[in-house]
Design brief:
Elements lengths: L12 E2 L4 E2 L15 E3 L4 H9 L6 E4 L5 E2 L7 E6 L7 H16 L3 E4 L4 H4 L7 E2 L25 H11 L1 E8 L1 H16 L5 E6 L15 H20 L4 E7 L6 H9 L5 E3 L13 H12 L1 E7 L24 H15 L5 E5 L2 H5 L5 H19 L2 E2 L1 E6 L2 E6 H4 L11 H10 L10
Parallel strand pairs: 6-7, 6-9, 9-10, 10-16, 11-13, 11-14, 12-13
Antiparallel strand pairs: 1-15, 2-5, 3-4, 4-17, 7-8, 16-17
């Protein structure tokens, strides 16, 4: 992750807020900008700042404010969902709508259809969201509003938001969505258009910087662990059976690692952050030979972004600008089969890729609770005038984090960190960085 930022970098933008909140005397605790959450996670980091004569940096604590930037009774708010599907999107939408309606009495809430294309005025008209509209959507997977990838012209989006009277926009998405949200907020400021833009962290890979965990991740780990059980059963049911599971994780192996810890039937976990060799002494295939000789079956979990040096994916990109990945799952499946065929040894490879099944599920109870909190805090931040910011959770507390800070780096597994070290201990896998074939 990026180095710990200095204090000026962690202060979110805020529009002028001088309108009394209807939450005053509501019984809810109101916060101010003086309260913060330490950026540092260890005593040593705090002490280093103090020794340097600096005040330890803090993120702004999320929560209701006593002063707002917008009059709720006259406000039109918008919600957009972008990027791939992820468990919990509908739960976030519902939380935002219910908080806007019941706590602030906002009269108009628009749901933009199919991502930023809808914000730009392309495609179907926005959906008017009410408490009735969202009543049961948290029980459903996917997104009520639809989604799409890729940027849209900023001027078109700002013009359409102004035409519709939208003053606060809630953007639910991952790195690409949040980059777009930041660009929209900056463009609005440049043209003098008063607009609050608040991001909610949706990336199933859990690779967003400066947030402990993005929503949907917990559900993904739960379901991935169940898939590993199926792979283990399949592997044990065949002579020299190999259960091979490919999980989400373009740049970070958090799901693969945590699922392997949740289900210790895994013998090998392969992630993007730790290079591995396929053939030769010390490579994966040699290790698999030994494993099958000893135990007669094996379970391998691989993150989708691992081993890209072994597959020829070219330079093509998707609509979000992400490089298209080679399919490491089918590559490993085919190479394992051909390797053992060359050795004249029988092997049965059962390959499972549950990615789209997991992405389209409704949220687990833990994620549902988390999504509800993210939606509530997003509304409080948006109406209080914060903009170009994301609701995060850091050191177990909810925060308001500047979007440029969030999109400036990506979170990855530390090969020497606690998670990966526990994976090595749990799987017992050897060092697989030997010479490749």
């Amino acid at each position: 992750m990026a180095d710990t930022p200095g204090a000026p970098d962690v202060v979110p933008q805020r529009l002028t807020a001088d309108i009394p909140s209807p939450l005053v005397n509501s019984g809810l605790r109101l916060f101010d900008d003086v309260e913060g959450v330490l950026v540092a996670k260890t005593v040593a980091e705090v002490q280093a700042a103090l020794d340097a004569g600096e005040t330890p940096a803090t993120f702004t604590l999320a929560g209701p404010r006593s002063d707002l930037a917008f009059r709720p009774a006259r406000l039109c708010a918008g919600i957009v969902t972008c990027g791939g599907l992820c468990p919990g999107i509908n739960a976030v939408i519902r939380s935002i709508v219910l908080t806007l309606h019941y706590h602030y009495r906002v009269p108009e809430i628009l749901g933009f259809r199919y991502g930023y294309a809808g914000v730009a005025g392309k495609g179907p008209e926005p959906m008017r969201l009410t408490t009735t509209t969202v009543d049961t959507i948290h029980r459903q997977g996917g997104t009520l509003l639809g989604t799409s990838r890729g940027p849209q012209p900023l001027d078109l989006m700002l013009d359409n938001l102004a035409l519709l009277g939208v003053r606060v926009l809630f953007c639910i998405g991952g790195d690409g969505t949040l980059r777009g949200a930041g660009a929209l907020a900056e463009a609005a400021a440049e043209r003098g258009q008063e607009l609050g833009v608040i991001g909610i962290p949706k990336t199933i890979d859990n690779d967003l910087a400066w947030v402990d965990q993005s929503f949907g991740y917990s559900t993904a780990v739960d379901e991935a662990a169940r898939v590993i059980t199926a792979a283990h059963n399949e592997a044990r049911g065949a002579v020299n059976g190999v259960g091979l599971v490919r999980l989400m994780g373009r740049n970070a192996g958090f799901i693969a690692a945590q699922a392997s810890l949740s289900n210790p039937d895994v013998n090998v976990c392969i992630v993007p952050e730790v290079p591995f060799a396929l053939g030769g002494p010390g490579g994966l295939l040699e290790m698999l030979e030994h494993r099958l000789t000893r135990r007669g079956h094996a379970v391998i979990v691989v993150a989708e972004g691992a081993g890209q040096d072994l597959v020829d994916a070219g330079e093509a990109t998707d609509a979000s600008g992400n490089r298209r990945l080679g399919d490491i799952g089918t590559f490993l499946r085919d190479r394992i089969r051909s390797h053992f065929a060359n050795l004249d040894r029988s092997v049965t490879v059962k390959y499972i890729d549950p990615s789209y099944i997991i992405r389209s599920l409704p949220a687990s109870p833990y994620d549902s609770h988390y999504c509800n909190a993210l939606g509530q805090h997003a509304v409080h931040a948006g109406l209080a005038g914060y903009t170009n910011a994301m609701i995060g959770r850091w050191n177990t507390m909810f925060t308001v984090v500047p979007l440029p800070l969030v999109t400036g780096s990506r979170r990855q597994l530390d090969p020497e960190g606690d998670i990966w070290q526990r994976v090595l201990q749990t799987t017992g896998q050897p060092d697989l960085s030997g010479p490749s074939a």
